[in-house]
Design a protein that fits this description.
It is built from 6 helices and 12 strands. By secondary structure, it is an alpha/beta fold. About 10% of the residues have low confidence.
């Protein structure tokens, strides 16, 4: 059995420090999936494993938010395309065309651009590199459902939802849980699959023990980049 946690650590994806997450919360652990996605063979292997539960579901589109979902969406669509394609003497004849696309932020909101279209009735997988609060994934789901399509699955390399609400750092502080949905194999009532689970502590920015210790912050995510 493959030890995926070992692969992530070996490739330097699991990092320690004081990080500002996409959600705005803080943590001492960050999983930099770019260190995984920069390795085509590794990414292809992980994608093939992740997509297995949907191999025979007639998926039409795999879509994710930029930047984290771009490469993963493409790699997840590839094994599905192979299963549903037929080679002809001249070119490639696809019996079932599967597309990979991504959403970008326009005025702060995720939107379909570059001519990407999601036809009504399409069966869709939503892909993201890391899921913590699920905010970006929920935005993608909302956009897809507005097109009249159906989201059949959610996939991420890393599930880093806290195992339980994080306790307040000091007595009297208000509990601010940072998790959502079901913890097993569903998110927002939709079937979910990931390669590894990482459950480090997550702190609200106004009650972060790392800040109180004066540890410098890093913001490695792509949200807010110009």
């Amino acid at each position: 059995m493959t030890d995926y946690n070992k692969i992530f650590k070996k490739l330097g994806a699991v990092q320690k420090g004081h990080f500002i997450l996409t959600s705005g919360n803080h943590s001492d652990t960050y999983v930099q999936c770019a260190r995984i996605l920069e390795n085509p063979k590794v990414t292809a292997k992980l994608a093939k494993e992740l997509i297995k539960p949907w191999n025979d579901q007639g998926i039409d589109i795999v879509v994710g938010p930029a930047l984290g979902g771009i490469i993963l969406s493409y790699e997840l669509a590839r094994p599905l395309s192979r299963r549903n394609s037929g080679w002809q003497r001249k070119g490639i004849g696809l019996r079932h065309k599967i597309k990979a696309m991504y959403l970008e932020r326009v005025d702060g909101k995720l939107a379909l651009r570059r001519g990407f279209m999601v036809p009504a009735g399409s069966k869709v997988i939503v892909a993201e590199d890391v899921i913590t609060t699920g905010g970006s994934v929920k935005e993608v789901i909302d956009v897809i459902e507005q097109q009249g399509a159906k989201v059949l699955g959610i996939i991420s390399l890393v599930d880093r939802r806290p195992a339980e609400p994080q306790p307040p750092a000091e007595a009297g502080d208000k509990l601010r849980p940072d998790y959502f949905g079901e913890k097993d194999n569903q998110i927002f009532g939709i079937k979910y699959n990931s390669i590894i689970q990482v459950n480090p502590p997550i702190y609200p920015p106004d009650n972060c023990p790392l800040c109180k210790k004066g540890i410098p912050t890093e913001k490695p995510g792509s949200r807010g980049l110009k």
